[in-house]
């Protein structure tokens, strides 16, 4: 199949991608990220998953989520209430893994390649299930950080692994493009 005919979907675990990018000092330009993967085939969907804490007056995620919604991404958020146990530790699980997995499985018959932006080993079962449906799965994270931000079992299960460090020149924000504060 010619690359231009390949149907691609991006599934971005927002918190995990942000942590991996931060670990290697990468500031992602989400416009460049879309263009990079659109150049590799027919981009069917680019979905970004994020949790937003309900009681926070200001969330650093909110401006990004709002921007993504207006610029070609399908944004999936969940409002959570932050609560703490008796030791002051947060009790809220701050991820959207199940929603991302359900959405990916629903789209499996409509895509040829899934690009999963996460290094979380919990996604190994999803990768395996997508592969059984004939979908080629690429995982994007980084092994260049110490410790690596990608689980070994996820990296081994994927058909391809792309290190953020190798994509940095194509999806990174140029520091000169920043607006003055």
Q: Quick summary of this structure?
A:
By secondary structure, the chain is of the alpha/beta class.
Walk me through the topology.
Blueprint: E1 7-13, H1 14-23, H2 30-38, E2 42-53, H3 61-70, E3 74-80, H4 97-107, E4 113-117, H5 124-132, E5 136-141, H6 152-157, E6 160-163, H7 164-171
Parallel strand pairs: 1-2, 1-4, 2-3, 4-5, 5-6
Quantity of strands, as a count: 6
Rounded mean pLDDT is: 89
List unreliable stretches of 5+ residues.
none
> DSSP strand (E) fraction?
15-25%
Indicate the multimeric state.
Answer: single chain
Number of helices: 7
Whole-number total of structural domains = 1
For the record, the CATH architecture stands as: 3-Layer(aba) Sandwich
Structural class assignment: alpha/beta
Distance between the termini: 47 Å
